[in-house]
Amino acid sequence: MSKITSIISCKGGVGKTTTAVNISSYIHTQGKRVLAVDLDYQHNLSKHFGIFPGHLKDKPTVYDLFNAAMDDCSDDEMNEMIHNAIVKSTTVDVLPSTAKLSLLDKVLPTATCREYILKGILKHIKNEYDYIFIDCHPGCDLFAINALAVSDSVIIPVEAHPLGLEGLDQVEKLIGTVQRHLNPDLKVDGILLTKFQNNTNCCRNIRDVVKDGYGNRMHIFDEHIKYSIGVAEAPEFGLSIHEYAPKNDAARSYAKIAMEVMFK
Ligand SMILES: Nc1ncnc2c1ncn2[C@@H]1O[C@H](COP(=O)(O)OP(=O)(O)OP(=O)(O)O)[C@@H](O)[C@H]1O
Ligand SMILES: [Mg+2]
Q1: pLDDT in tens, 149-175
Q2: For position 2, what pLDDT does the model report?
Q3: What number is the average pLDDT over the span 92-119?
Q4: Cα 220 to averaged position of ligand 1 atoms, centre (Å)
Q5: N or C: which terminal CB in the chain sees fewer CB atoms within 10 Å?
């Protein structure tokens, strides 16, 4: 049985994609079959894994899978299509996106069973992986709801920055709504503080506010991801932080978080 985990936040640039890439890459090094799903029309996760639109000319992407599902294609068609869409690799397999995904913004709200479209897609490959990570674009919209509706758990990155808490209440509320109406089994793996700078009062304050304000309802990972230029450089080389700079503090922290997520 696979575990599906969404990485979500309402805020942009908080480290969702970085977290999805580095946790999934680390778990792969533990001998597990891992798939990363790019549910963002910025397609940064695909790019981080070295997959660009030019590589996908003959392949369906998440956009095509959503369209086919909204057209009520048969199980056989979807099965074939998703197997064609996945970019296999010697590390993490990727279900990639392109900017075209944004074309669904207007049609997705009109679709029948619109909250369960991703669930209907992933059921065809779920059992081929031990772990599946879904990287969402910023926002609490129908894409995030689709991700939460199919997930066993969710990770919420929060940037250790004075504005980092913006939108956290909204995310908590969305998770509660999904648990009540769509997916009662959804669990919160934890809130993950990112871009943390140990020597600043500002970051320590944010950590305390998160602990005091949310710690009694949601798990907060003990491990924080430190701000490190190595983390920002790694995507340019199509590498995870574990491959790019294995001794980097952020690599160690992502490894610990990954182990926690594996055994939760
Ligand atoms: N720990 C870190 N140290 C330094 N830079 C980081 C760290 N984590 C992420 N970054 C950088 O911050 C930027 C935003 O990170 P990322 O793309 O992971 O955020 P995101 O939440 O996925 O953004 P979006 O909401 O746009 O999808 C990227 O340039 C990334 O390389
Ligand atoms: Mg992102």
Answers
A1: 999 999 999 999 988 899 999 999 999
A2: 92
A3: 96
A4: 19
A5: N
Calculate how far, in angstroms, residue 201's C-alpha sits from the geometric centre of ligand 2. Answer: 27
CA distance 38 to 59: 15
Spatial contact of 52 and 46, defined as CB atoms under 8 Å apart: yes
What is d(CA 219, CA 3) in angstroms, rounded to the nearest whole number? Answer: 18
Task: Pick the residue whose CA is nearest to atom 3 on ligand 1.
Answer: 227
Could you name the CATH architecture of 3-263? Answer: 3-Layer(aba) Sandwich (3.40)
CA 19 to centroid of ligand 1, rounded, Å: 8
**Structure token pair of residue 258:** 């990954």
Q: Evaluate if pTM is beyond 0.90.
A: yes
Return the domain boundaries, the chain. 3-263
Torsion of CA 56, 10, 24, 58, to 10 degrees: -10
Q: Which among 10, 17, 236 is the best mutation to test ligand 1's pocket, defined by most ligand atoms within 8 Å of the CB?
A: 17
